[in-house]
Amino acid sequence: MKPLIITIGVTILLIFGFIFLQGKDNTQVESSQDSQILGDAVGIEVNPGNYDLGNVPINGGLVTKEYEIKNTTDKTLIIKKITTSCMCTKASFEIGGEATKFFGMEGHGDKNPSVNVEIGAGATGKTIVRFDPAAHGPQGAGPVDRSVFLTFSDPAGIKELKFNGVVVK
Asked: Which Pfam families does the protein's record reference (predicted)?
């Protein structure tokens, strides 16, 4: 009887210990640029600021839009990462005839790699965005608000590109 009580006691302690450790704040100070990003990227002009796609037929195929991205500073800026708010949206950045691959939403353990694309002082590039209205299946009809995030370094910041619309059957 005593070994059973000891086993149960140890098991309960292990479970509570695990729960305690999972609830603990694991915030750490990192030296990476990504951990230092605070707020909106400065010195970046986006045109247009938002696209209203209107009604988007669910079976109408991919919708592609472009955003002009201009470096209004007097120094080179670097795009470190491109991510999106949903798996139905992919984005790429192009400048000087060179383009990145299309990147999507991070999650489920996936992380988009660094792109390290330079935008020279006064230079203009473009972000190409592809939205798949059928990505969520037939139940995906209705209003959508999506974002693309360009993460910059030196100075650090994030520029959010937005679009909205209504997916219709």
From this structure: DUF1573
Q: Using CB atoms within 10 A of its CB, is residue 3 exposed (0-12), middle (13-18) or buried (19+)?
A: exposed
Give pLDDT tens digits for 15-26: 766 676 665 444
Which residue did the predictor score with more confidence, 38 or 82? 82
Instruction: Report the predicted TM-score, pTM, of the whole model to 2 decimal places.
Output: 0.75
Q: Which amino acid is at 34?
A: D
Domains and CATH numbers, the chain: 38-168 (2.60.40.10)
